[in-house]
């Protein structure tokens, strides 16, 4: 921790304001305090008014008065931030004490507990925050709470006028004054080891009073701040509301935070009247026993049995007060990764993501360089059902902390939208508390953090994919060595893990290839497809390349609606005959993605449904001579079919990569839409038929060795205008169009 960094100094303008607790109860212990005792605390507070009347009166610095006026009148929509500011500063005061105690352990002799306690009084309408931090002397109270750097106030006023987020109040060193959003009077009691206990009080006017506490040293050490709540801020004396706010903003503060809570329990009570009735009953039974005759023995026994039956005891409800810890979850990202168990990682994920399942994998690392931060990033084991609904508006669930204080859970710029499934935390000690998005952008900090986070996510995915693919590589850039040395990856070493990832988030990877050209090379290695040689299992592009024929220099693919549909395609006939593997692109995104992948590992990407299909095992000159020979022999068919089809096809030609069993296929030009792409475009929800581009012109390629084509050659030679010729021509067209 950089105790004396510039950001720390700014945060410490009022860092020591919140410290102290004189309660001797230990963490989480149930305290039998009646509600009347809590209500009585307000009376104790009011007894201090007399002492304050005789105290020293000071005038606020002009900038402070101006600042409080702005806060009270302008930031009313962000009231709850006051609690975050107070807890954050209380934590700073405790941190400072712990740091000083490293060189002087006697500082802790008077009070060893380092903690924060929050209580409320619904009768007096007060909210109290205590901590056992370093505390303040009288001079500290005057200087820290009565003055503020002029530049801080000026910058804050300027930022507010320019529409800055009110949540960023603390970055200007004026976070303490947010208490006036909810309180019309504030009382601060503080005890430093080097001074007596003093009281500071102000009602948000032009002055404040400081006096020695007539009660003596009740705190032992630290600070207690009491807010006298405004009428429109009484929600902050509700224990459920307070617990929710502490959990949201300060869940991972280093020190325990206790909230004074009440609950009802049922207890047994003495029933004196019932005891008297029982005694009278016993006397009556005795009289019956002595005065009755022998014939009444059975009745006597019945009476005795009734009197021996247990008497039901009375109960009543009683209110019990106790200190409940509200930040049980540990900030595990601050611990050495070797000390964190898998169960802790799983529990932490469930806590921050509000999920009951374990994550698929995670990465825990420390980044160093221009900006230092710690982070844990998770991949949930299952994508939400609405993962791709309003996809552009979904952002990763990555929370930003500064010294374990939540700053924002809506930093959209941390990760690109294609990584919106990532869950995790980022925590930096270097950033100022309440750092704003604007500040990050101005200092180029966000760009640096984003780059490192994206790199680590892709590294995590690479590690996970290697367990499935078996073709790993070390392609990390040299400039991330420092990060990598401190990184810890957790990837389950079975192939089903990456399969689970791909089935849930495969579309995200494809979107990343289109949206993130800088990382396209890494993302390409994450792609998975089924193929002619692996119709029941996904393979990677690396895997495809590893088992290519020695003569093969092209990666072939075919797009269609489903695996079953593409497996029936006549385009596969030649490829299967040659033993060439063909990737199946059956996701609607696949063809869009292929427009961004001209090649992979030096191998050209080629659709087998488009013209110009070639195989590297053939003599191109020989193939061309054969095509010309067939073209001469079938010239009448080629020209005749073109005349029959008209604009239905752009041309009719002899296929170079002739189908084995089909008479003809319809191909498209290299830059035209395939039949599958046309189907996808037409099916789009907001497609406008009137505004669509004209369908791509089809090219009919004939198989000259097929009997139907031979029959047509004879018909066009003898009866080109005959009905039979035209009927067979259209039958060929329909069959080719359907199969393509």
From TrEMBL:
Residues 264-314 are annotated as: Disordered. It holds the Pfam family HSP90. ATP binds at residues 85, 89, 131, 136, 144, 150-152, 171-176, 223, 437. Residues 1-19 form the signal peptide. It comes from Aphanomyces astaci (Crayfish plague agent). Keywords: ATP-binding, Chaperone, Nucleotide-binding, Signal. It comes from the Eukaryota. SMART domains: HATPase_c (SM00387). Residues 267-307 have a biased composition (Acidic residues). PANTHER family: HEAT SHOCK PROTEIN 90 FAMILY MEMBER. Belongs to the heat shock protein 90 family. CDD domains: HATPase_Hsp90-like (cd16927). Residues 78-233 form the Histidine kinase/HSP90-like ATPase domain. This is Histidine kinase/HSP90-like ATPase domain-containing protein.
């Amino acid at each position: 921790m950089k105790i004396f960094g510039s950001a720390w100094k700014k945060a410490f303008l009022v860092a020591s304001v919140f410290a102290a607790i004189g309660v001797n109860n230990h963490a989480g212990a149930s305290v039998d305090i009646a509600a009347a005792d809590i209500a009585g605390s307000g009376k104790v507070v009011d007894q201090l008014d007399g002492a304050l009347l005789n105290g020293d009166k000071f005038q606020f610095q002009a900038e402070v008065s101006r600042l409080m006026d702005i806060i009270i009148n302008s930031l009313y929509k962000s009231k709850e931030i006051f609690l975050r500011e107070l807890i954050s500063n209380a934590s700073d005061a405790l941190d400072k004490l712990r740091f000083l105690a490293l060189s002087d352990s006697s500082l802790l002799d008077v009070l060893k507990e380092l903690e924060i306690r929050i209580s409320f009084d619904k009768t007096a309408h007060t909210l109290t925050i205590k901590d056992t931090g370093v505390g303040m002397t009288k001079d500290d109270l005057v200087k820290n709470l009565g003055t503020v750097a002029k530049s801080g106030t000026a910058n804050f006023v300027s930022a507010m006028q320019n529409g800055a987020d009110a949540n960023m109040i603390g970055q200007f060193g004026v976070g303490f004054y947010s208490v006036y959003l909810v309180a019309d009077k504030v009382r601060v009691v503080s005890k430093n080891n080097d001074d007596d206990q003093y009281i500071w009080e102000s009602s948000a006017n032009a002055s404040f009073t400081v006096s020695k506490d007539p009660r003596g040293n009740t705190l032992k050490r630290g600070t207690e701040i009491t807010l006298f709540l405004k009428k429109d801020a009484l929600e902050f004396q509700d224990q459920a509301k307070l617990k929710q706010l502490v959990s949201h903003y300060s869940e991972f503060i280093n020190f325990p935070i206790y909230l004074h809570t009440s609950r009802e329990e049922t207890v047994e009570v003495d029933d004196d009247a019932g005891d008297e009735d029982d005694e009278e009953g016993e006397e009556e039974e005795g009289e019956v026993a002595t005065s009755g005759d022998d014939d009444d023995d059975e009745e006597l026994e019945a009476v005795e049995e009734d009197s021996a039956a247990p008497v039901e005891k009375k109960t009543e409800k009683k209110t019990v007060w106790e200190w409940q810890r509200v930040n049980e979850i540990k900030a595990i990202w601050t611990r050495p990764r070797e000390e964190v168990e898998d169960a802790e990682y799983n529990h932490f994920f469930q806590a921050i993501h509000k999920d009951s399942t374990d994550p698929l994998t995670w990465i825990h690392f420390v980044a160093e360089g221009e900006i230092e931060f710690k982070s844990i990033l998770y991949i949930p084991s299952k994508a939400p059902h609405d993962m791709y609904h309003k996809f552009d508006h979904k952002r990763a669930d990555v929370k930003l902390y500064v010294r374990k204080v939540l700053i924002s859970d809506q930093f959209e710029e941390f990760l690109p939208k294609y990584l919106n499934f990532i869950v995790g935390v980022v925590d930096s000690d270097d950033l100022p508390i309440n750092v704003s998005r604007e500040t990050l952008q101005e200092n180029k900090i966000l760009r640096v953090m984003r780059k490192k986070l994206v790199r680590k996510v892709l590294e995590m995915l690479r590690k996970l994919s290697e367990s499935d693919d078996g073709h790993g590589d070390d392609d990390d850039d040299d400039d991330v060595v420092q990060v990598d040395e401190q990184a810890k990856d957790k990837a389950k070493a079975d192939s089903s893990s990456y399969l689970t990832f791909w089935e849930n988030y495969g579309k995200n990877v494809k979107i990343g290839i289109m949206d993130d050209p800088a990382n396209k090379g890494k993302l390409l290695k994450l792609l998975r497809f089924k193929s002619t040689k692996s119709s029941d299992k996904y393979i990677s592009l690396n895997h495809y390349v590893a088992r290519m024929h020695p003569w093969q220099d092209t990666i072939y693919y075919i797009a269609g609606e489903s695996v079953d549909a593409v497996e029936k395609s006549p385009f596969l006939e030649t490829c299967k005959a040659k033993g060439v593997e063909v990737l199946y692109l059956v996701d609607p995104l696949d063809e869009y993605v292929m427009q961004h992948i001209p090649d992979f590992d030096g191998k050209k990407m080629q659709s087998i449904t488009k013209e110009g299909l070639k195989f590297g095992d053939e003599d191109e000159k020989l193939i061309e001579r054969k095509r010309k020979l067939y073209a001469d022999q079938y010239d009448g068919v080629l020209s005749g079919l073109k005349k029959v089809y008209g604009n239905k096809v752009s041309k009719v030609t002899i296929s170079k990569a002739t189908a084995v069993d089909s008479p003809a296929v319809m191909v498209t030009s290299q830059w035209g839409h395939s039949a599958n792409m046309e189907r996808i475009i037409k099916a789009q929800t907001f497609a406008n038929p009137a505004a669509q581009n004209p369908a791509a012109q089809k090219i009919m390629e004939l198989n000259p060795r097929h009997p139907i084509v031979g029959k047509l050659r004879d018909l066009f030679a003898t009866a080109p205008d005959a009905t039979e010729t035209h009927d067979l021509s259209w039958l060929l067209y329909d069959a080719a169009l359907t199969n393509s």
